[in-house]
Write a structure and sequence with these properties.
This protein is of the alpha+beta class. The protein has 2 domains: about 230 residues, Metallo-beta-lactamase, Chain A, CATH 3.60.15; about 60 residues. The chain is about 40% helix and about 20% strand. The chain is built from 10 helices and 16 strands. The strands form 3 sheets. Strands 1-16-15-12-11-10-9 form a 7-stranded mixed β-sheet, covered by helices on one side. The relative contact order is 0.13.
């Protein structure tokens, strides 16, 4: 089954916010949230956390998959409004949040959306500022959230160097950020190996080893049952195909990366209209993917 709306996914786990920028709420003994998208979504996440939890201060953890603005943008806002919230992420992500240039980029990308969705923000201060990662997560460690709920940490670099995915054995659920790409409106999976193609493929192979009934990806969709298992396999195939496509285009363009970016942008973004991503962010990501393949040839 493919779920496209927020709400209950399985007993104890819910999608909140918006289907394009979901956060995943685990109603365990120590409630936990996974990811917190673009800054402007902060007030909506907080309002829905209040609906589910009653007292938002019950939320114990915010687990981040990686440091991108559309996954960690609302983290500072939630830390300002939820007492003793523990933000957990990889050591590499914690380092990113200490870098001035990284903070400025997050602020810049977030500002485009803040201006567009001013009505959602209202009078709230959603500004992204530096914040401390309270708990550094290691590959393979397990976090016990009580009452039979455990979260296994899986290092999944490739999309970014700081990527983590999370496996919840009780529901056989994987929360994977963009470690296995993002489908567009037509169901075409777009791989997201911004940092390293080799690491991305290795991470996909690790995810394929898990016994899954639910796959929660970064944007738009939740896959369950056969669709969950099939999604990871299809993502692996799409990744290999996209790599070959970039290789071919680079050869045809004599190694000109900008020409390849322009060609794929027209073919995939402009001509189909199926990709649900801001133009600026898409071009930044596409350039990184072409660069990753060019340097791996």
């Amino acid at each position: 089954m493919i779920l496209e709306e927020k709400g209950k996914i399985a007993e104890g786990i819910y999608s909140i916010g918006h289907k394009d920028l979901p956060a995943w709420l685990l109603m365990s003994e120590m409630p936990a949230l996974f990811d917190a998208g673009i800054t402007f979504m902060g007030p909506q996440y907080l309002a829905e956390l209040r609906e589910y939890l009653g007292d938002v201060n019950r939320l114990k953890y915010l687990f981040l998959t990686h440091s991108h603005f559309d996954h960690a943008g609302s983290a500072p806002y939630l830390k300002r409004h939820i007492r003793n919230l523990t933000v957990a992420a990889s050591a590499s992500a914690a380092e990113v949040f200490r870098k001035e240039n990284a903070i400025k980029l997050i602020q810049s990308l977030s500002r485009d959306y803040e201006e567009k969705f001013r009505d959602v923000i209202g009078s709230e201060d959603v500004f992204f500022d530096t914040f401390k990662v309270d708990r550094i997560l290691q590959d393979g460690e397990e976090v016990d959230l009580g009452a039979g709920w455990r979260v296994q940490v899986i290092a999944t670099p490739g999309h970014t160097r700081d990527g983590l995915s999370y496996y919840i054995p009780r529901v056989k659920g994987l929360i994977i950020g963009e470690a296995a790409g993002v489908p567009d409106r037509n169901g075409v999976i777009h791989p997201e190996f911004l940092a390293s193609y080799k690491d991305y493929v290795a991470s996909l192979k690790r995810l394929l080893e898990f016994d899954v009934e639910i796959v929660m990806i970064a944007h738009h969709f939740v896959f369950t049952g056969d669709d969950a298992r099939g999604y990871l396999a299809k993502s692996f195939e799409s990744t290999q195909a996209f790599r070959h496509r970039i290789d071919d285009y680079l050869k045809q363009a004599g190694g000109n990366r900008d020409a390849v970016v322009e060609r794929i942008f027209k073919e995939d973004y402009e001509n189909t209209g199926a990709i649900q991503q801001d133009r600026r962010a898409y071009l930044i990501n596409l350039a990184a993917k072409v660069k990753a393949i060019a340097e791996d040839r």
